[in-house]
TrEMBL record:
Pfam families: FXa_inhibition, Ldl_recept_b
Species, as recorded: Bambusicola thoracicus
LDL-receptor class B repeats mapped onto the chain: 14-56, 57-99
Keywords: Disulfide bond, EGF-like domain, Glycoprotein, Repeat, Signal
A Gene Ontology cellular-component term: plasma membrane
Gene3D superfamilies per record: Laminin (2.10.25.10), TolB, C-terminal domain (2.120.10.30)
Transmembrane regions listed in the UniProt entry: none
SMART domains recorded: LY
Name of this chain's protein: EGF-like domain-containing protein
GO biological process, one term: canonical Wnt signaling pathway
PROSITE patterns according to UniProt: LDLRB (PS51120)
Source taxon at top rank: Eukaryota
Keyword field contains Manganese: no
GO molecular function terms attached to this record: Wnt receptor activity; Wnt-protein binding
Length: 262
């Protein structure tokens, strides 16, 4: 039986990507239907959070068993470990493709540099993260503090949207609403983040534990990064930063030309 935890959406190719901890594996399929395709099935422990840079054409994922964060091309090739230190059960991950930051809650540039702690106080079990490209707000659900909170990563201060929620896991944003999955209620709950009020909830007919949730935007958010055109001039991985980009080799290669190790 599959246990799908994380889900991400590629607004350019209209593809859905997900992590499965039973395999374990990472797969993708067209939003309009079609056979799922496994893109990564080796050297995984418990892949949970997954995020996608639709401009740089890379996926990022967390592995809470191997305690690391990795990156690869959308087809699973050119895999590289970004972080394997200072992590204990990393779960949710989001990227901000235009500014090149992949958001204790920590943040870094997409190439792994400039790693720093964004939020470390008054957190319990921050399960889900979402970044809204339109408002530049980073929001998270915390099953320990039972709160849904938001902040602008480039400014100080955070805002409690709702308190006293039951057991949130995943969260996503769309328009003025935030949608989170709740393990106690077996429901997807909608919250108006402007007025901090729950305004809807949805319970699937087949009640089961709900994990990740994401938004399939009809159009990609505007903007570009340094990997948008011609893979940033990189031969292999192009990882965007706010000021430019880093060309990186996959882990199994060496040298400037990323020659595969024998």
């Amino acid at each position: 039986d599959k246990v799908i935890i994380g889900v991400a959406y590629d607004c350019m190719e209209k593809m859905v990507y997900w992590t499965d901890i039973s395999g374990p594996s990472i797969s993708r399929a067209s939003l309009h239907g079609g056979e799922p395709m496994t893109i990564i099935r080796t050297d995984l422990g418990s892949p949970e959070g997954i995020a996608l840079d639709h401009l740089g054409r890379n996926i990022f994922w967390t592995d809470s068993q191997l305690d690391r964060i990795e990156v690869a091309r959308l087809d699973g090739r050119q895999r590289r470990i970004l972080f394997d230190t200072g992590l204990v059960n990393p779960r949710a991950i989001v990227v901000d493709p235009v500014r090149g930051e992949a958001p204790k809650i920590e943040t870094s540039y997409m190439d792994g540099t400039n790693r720093r702690i964004l939020v470390k106080d008054d957190l319990g079990l921050p399960n889900g993260l979402t970044f809204d490209p339109y408002s530049s707000m980073l929001c998270w659900v915390d099953a320990g503090t039972k709160r849904l909170e938001c902040m602008n990563p480039n400014q100080l201060g955070r805002r409690k949207i709702v308190e006293g929620i039951q057991y949130p896991f995943g969260v996503t944003s769309y328009g003025k609403n935030l949608y989170y999955t709740d393990w106690r209620r077996d429901a997807v709950v909608a919250v108006d983040r402007m007025i901090s009020v729950e305004n809807d909830n949805f319970q699937p007919h087949k009640r089961s534990r709900l994990y990740g949730i994401t938004t399939a935007f009809a159009q990609c958010p505007g903007g570009h990064n340094y990997c948008t055109v011609n893979n940033g001039g990189c031969t292999h991985l192009c990882l965007a930063t706010p000021e430019g980009r880093s060309c990186r080799c996959p882990d199994n290669t060496v040298g400037v030309d990323c020659i595969e190790r024998n």
